[in-house]
Amino acid sequence: MIIDFRVQVPKPDRVGTRTDYMKRYLDIFDLSAVSYSLPQLLSLLDAAGIDRAVMQAEWSSGDYREENDQVAEIARKHPDRFVGFASVNASDGLIAVNELKRSVETLGLRGLNVQPFASRLYANDKKFYPLYYKCLEYGIPVAIHTGINYSNDRTIDYGRPIYVDEVACDFPGLKIIMNHGGWPWVHESVAIARKHRSVYIEIGGIAPKYVAAENAGWDILLRFANNLLQDQILFATDSMIPFDRAVNEAKSLPLKPEVLAKFLGGNAQELIRSFSK
């Protein structure tokens, strides 16, 4: 089974939906190639051999409640295909906490996705802590954007994985997914995952061939993925890389066959099972 641990809400015109501070993404990614309707998304997943996907709402601006509603509706219609994660802006305080409560208790979403750089916060900012506490209470994971952001008006330091270490220390047992693997600080991601068994590394938004490329900054992840971290790595596209291309490139990574099976779906299946009981 192949599981994509992060796809985005279907948008036929993803280019036109970029907020001003994220326009730089248009220069780096061909978002027209990943603009689709729900029927198109299902067809693309089928063509790539992807059996299930975690659809993560992603707040960058606007009303995150609307996107949470969209994710929940898709997950309800296709429960065997999608698992839904909510998104909020931690700067909204109690409003964000109440939206997480609504998303889980009313909408049936099974995780939370936060983007510290979008809120101009660090992952260990105490504004996130009520949200982390609720995730721990519900027994659901939190996915945290780590690594570079391409917005020209805010520092990439918001995405350093090192800040996730404090979160994992303060919330033992909370399942944390470090989205994007924390590049260019992959060594920090690996160290934190080695330290905390409850922390996972996924590579959404990264073409897998670059993970194996020489001097691309991912070599330490591949080294540990083949042994100590083999149960803590997750395949994801973030809908930024065409699904069939991502799967084909992932299958060519220098991973042991049993580790590749875990990376492409086994670990995600176990993680989903842990919060779907």
Describe the structure.
The chain has 11 helices and 8 strands. Strands 1-2-3-4-5-6-7-8 form an 8-stranded parallel β-sheet, sandwiched between helices. It has a single domain (3-275), classed as Metal-dependent hydrolases (TIM Barrel), CATH 3.20.20.140. It starts with a strand and ends with a helix. The chain has helices at residues 25-28, 38-48, 64-77, 94-105, 129-138, 162-170, 186-195, 208-211, 219-225, 243-251, 257-275, and strands at 3-7, 52-56, 82-87, 112-114, 142-145, 176-179, 199-202, 233-234. With 277 residues, the protein is α/β, with parallel strands linked by helices.
> What is the CATH topology descriptor?
TIM Barrel
Helix-strand category: alpha/beta
Number of strands: 8
Please state the average pLDDT score. Answer: 93
Report the CATH C-level class. Answer: Alpha Beta
Task: Please estimate the helix content.
Answer: 25-40%
Distance between the termini: 20 Å
Major sheet: size, sense and barrel closure? 8 strands, parallel
The DSSP helix count reads 11
Summary, kept brief:
The longest helix has 19 residues, at 257-275. The chain has eleven helices and eight strands. It has helices at residues 25-28, 38-48, 64-77, 94-105, 129-138, 162-170, 186-195, 208-211, 219-225, 243-251, 257-275; strands at 3-7, 52-56, 82-87, 112-114, 142-145, 176-179, 199-202, 233-234.
